[in-house]
Amino acid sequence: MAADQANSRPTRPPALRDVAVAAGVSHQTVSRVVNGNPRVLPATRERVLQAIEELGYRRNHAARALATSRTRVLGVVVVNTRLYGPSGTLLGIEQAARQAGYWVSVASVPEGDATAARDAIGHFLDQGVDGLAVVAQTEPVLRAAQQAAGACPTVLVTSGPVEPTDATTRAGLVRIDIDQAMGVGLVVSHLAQLGHRQIAHLAGPTGNLHAQARLEAWRRHVSTAGLTLGPLLQGDWSAASGYALGLTWANAAQPPTAVFAANDTMAQGLLRALHEEGWEVPRDVSVVGFDDSPGTDQTIPPLTTVRQDLEALGKACVEALVGLMEGFPQAGVLLPPGLVVRDSTARPPAAH
Amino acid sequence: MAADQANSRPTRPPALRDVAVAAGVSHQTVSRVVNGNPRVLPATRERVLQAIEELGYRRNHAARALATSRTRVLGVVVVNTRLYGPSGTLLGIEQAARQAGYWVSVASVPEGDATAARDAIGHFLDQGVDGLAVVAQTEPVLRAAQQAAGACPTVLVTSGPVEPTDATTRAGLVRIDIDQAMGVGLVVSHLAQLGHRQIAHLAGPTGNLHAQARLEAWRRHVSTAGLTLGPLLQGDWSAASGYALGLTWANAAQPPTAVFAANDTMAQGLLRALHEEGWEVPRDVSVVGFDDSPGTDQTIPPLTTVRQDLEALGKACVEALVGLMEGFPQAGVLLPPGLVVRDSTARPPAAH
DNA sequence: CAGCCCCGTGTTAGCGGTAACTTAGACTGA
DNA sequence: TCAGTCTAAGTTACCGCTAACACGGGGCTG
Question: Does B234 contact A at CB distance below 8 Å?
Fold first, then answer.
């Protein structure tokens, strides 16, 4: 060991050959042992394993990837990692990938920066990832991803209309998400059941497909339930925007009895604004969020929200990717979210 | 293009050779162009670039890594990615790495699972990462990381006493963090200045080095400021634990006028408990958090907290790693946090 | 104008694995 | 007993790229 350090030129790590020499076998036999090939005599295997142990051999991933042209690495491009949704999705994918024996390389790109996304995808293609997951809620980034799909199995974690272009159908491209519309449906029917007649919406930023999906679902579900669409305000996911919008809302002429915020963080700001303006939640007004992000159970009051199973989402992504790699066409997946009823929703105050 | 599809055997992607043939030069010249070597005639370069364009050539990362034995990939092991701190740190590292021309491979392991951490580190070593960052706040994981440091430049993003063992000093091992004690110092002096005489602490889980560092700094700073150590309660970072502890606290015989929570999420639960029990913040009691995680600006009331610059942290990690790779010994880094004063702290109620 | 250096380019030899084929010996069955 | 298998190993030929060296020709020096 000290000899290693003292040696003039830095000793290169032991290779298959070195192990072979040490064990008195051919490098191929070592390869067989390393790969768990059963056609090796136990005695030989033992000798090889011992040599591996002694030399501290580790197989070289690059060489293996070069020879097999498979890396067992999945690339994940995430937009807007600061938010709970994307970062949770990333974590979900990472967990599932590891369990499936894959490893994850990550690139986090700023929202809407299609060039950065394209670069990241290009890098992953260079790196020879076996599969690609793109977690994005903006059109430009998705388009970049669709182009990539020709070169490698790709999963788009996104909602909204991804029109099946030529490239889409030809290549291994799958769309997976948690069913946004269904989540909103749960919210609306919960509020309707409580007796609310009008539901306002605090939407996410324009151009974000999740924001858009939730907005459209709000419109549709409120209408089909025979309820009235309350005022529509638009925020940017941040708590501060929720607060600002909450002030606006609270001073409106005839505020409705229920507000559906497109995410929990905005809902939190909204709660504060209502509190400041003297509205009591849920007595005067019911508030619902979306995501069930950490801490949402301890807002004042604890927030009714929609829970998305990000772990399941990750698992679905990896499964689809693996299926695609094995050559099976994969159908898109829409996972069901669940409603978590807490203390921010109640019957509306008696009419008039 | 259609021909590609129709071809019986799947056409392998174009290699350096193919480009060379197309451009009528040797593969080495193509390599020079690809690597930006200036010793190529503009005319030749142009021809090569055109051939690259036409064939859609991308260089093979595995082959390159094999030949150079450098991958330009950084491995990051993160413990407890669900929390704001670790996930933000990961993001910070990713951003900085990309800017420095490196790419990031991630493994998220459960808290305290040293085996998983060891596996992840082993994998990264196999994969031939050029550097390793371990974001962990538990001893067992750190020990695993220290062993790895011999094989590859390593940065430990962690607080607490990492004793410089033989391995540490010999290998490229650096410790980087945001100065926890300094953050706590800001909190304590802020509260002292407001006139508080006793400060309680809502600590994080035992065995977590950040929790421990914050706890110890609380003890030290409160004592040296000549103040009284208030009751010490222990949570698990979650908002729910903060809430439960808050109820306990509120029903104590003589609750002090100020509480320092070890993170914002617990502080949020604490705020709710106080609110429920009829205490008004900050009139009756001041509350301070730690992290400045998203939404902390819109709790009721907005929380005074300690902001950690996770982007700077990431940058420091990458810089240290790059320095280490280039053979320069690196000193550890402690980044200064800042105090964000909001509405949850005020002068204590007048002492009778 | 010989000698030198430098420039643009080509040639060769690996990097550390895996796949596919080959070989030597043991075992089988007619 | 001998062809026919089967088994455990060895041999060889790449995978796609880079590093190091080789080489011819033009410009410079003395």
Answer: no
Hits for CB < 7 Å against strand C across B residues 271-330: none
Tell me the C-alpha distance between A91 and A98, whole Å. 11
A67 CB-to-strand D distance under 7 Å:
yes
Domain that holds residue B143: 71-178+309-336
Same domain, B256 and B142: no
If contacts are CB pairs under 8 Å, which of residues 49-68 in chain B contact chain A?
58-63, 65-66
Summary count for chain B: helices (H), strands (E): 14, 12
Same domain, B198 and B263: yes
In a domain, A195, yes or no: yes
pLDDT in the model for residue B162: 59
Answer yes or no: is B41 CB < 7 A from strand C: yes
The pLDDT of residue A200: 96
The verdict on residue B208 lying in a domain is yes
How buried is B88 (Cβ within 10 angstroms: 0-12 exposed, 13-18 middle, 19+ buried)? buried
Total structural domains in chain A? 3
Question: pLDDT (tens digit, 9 = 90+) per residue, A18-36?
Answer: 999 999 999 999 999 999 9
CA distance A104 to chain B (A): 6
Mean pLDDT for A308-325 is: 95
Interval A226-267: pLDDT, tens = 999 989 999 999 999 999 999 998 888 788 899 999 999 999
Q: Is the pLDDT of residue A76 over 90?
A: yes
Question: Does residue B317 contact residue B96 with C-beta atoms inside 8 Å?
Answer: yes
> Domain containing B106 — which CATH number?
3.40.50.2300
Tell the residue number behind the tokens 């060039």, with chain if given. Answer: A115
Other C-beta atoms closer than 10 Å to the C-beta of A133 total 31
pLDDT of residue A80: 82
A191 and A302 housed in the same domain: yes
Residue A42 maps to which CATH number? Answer: 1.10.260.40
For residue B92, give every residue at least 6 positions away whose Cβ sits within 8 Å of its Cβ, in sequence order, or none. Answer: B310, B311, B312, B313, B314, B315, B317
Predicted confidence at residue A159, as pLDDT, reads 85
Q: What are phi and psi of A178, to 5 degrees?
A: -90, 140
Which residue among B59, B85, B108 closes a domain?
B59
Q: Is B125 on the interface with A (CB under 8 A)?
A: yes
Residue A148: predicted pLDDT: 76
A166 falls in which pLDDT band (50, 70, 90)?
very low
Residues A251 and A112 in one domain: no
Nearest to A211 by CA among A189, A241, A191, A253: A241
Cβ neighbors of B248 (< 8 A, separation 6 or more) are B233
Query: For position B5, what pLDDT does the model report?
Result: 37
Residue spans of chain B under pLDDT 70: 1-10, 160-171, 351-352
CB B288 within 8 A of CB B316: no
CA angle B19, B23, B28 (to 5 degrees): 60
Q: Is the CB of B63 under 7 A from strand D?
A: yes
